[in-house]
Write the structure tokens for this entry.
Amino acid sequence: MVQERNPVTPAVRVLRAARIEFTDHPYAYEEHGGTAASSRELGVDEHLVIKTLVMEDERRRPLIVLMHGDREVSTQKLARHLSVKMIAPCRPEVASRHSGYLVGGTSPFGTRKSLPVYVERSILDLTRIYINGGRRGYLVGIAPRALVDLLKPEPVDVAT
């Protein structure tokens, strides 16, 4: 099977419609490889590869957290910040239902439902990031400013 060079996903459509400049970065997807595999395949620092994590609170209200590939989310810090009892990752099938993407290919752009987005504050200080373009094995390179312009995320300090 030949993979198309530049897939047209809901995320790509959103970026194009907003006239956001981005670069295409297809790579050989590895099941459970995560950002370590994608950063290795692309030859970029894992800190610049941003994870899109679909999580939920105790009332099952979904949200997205954008985090550096080499860091984890402190769900306790995030719960405290949001004044909720707990935050936990959604099960893959639940995350897919909220986002419209398969886990491993989740983009914060073009999600099925409009979800609140939280971004690790230090991501916004970078000059370029690599974030999922809406398909497994496909990242887009963008300026972090695009996150602010399109998603209006709330900056948080929840990395561990």
Q: What stands out?
A: The domain at 23-156 is CATH 3.90.960.10 (YbaK protein). The helical segments are 10-17, 34-42, 75-82, 92-99, 145-151.
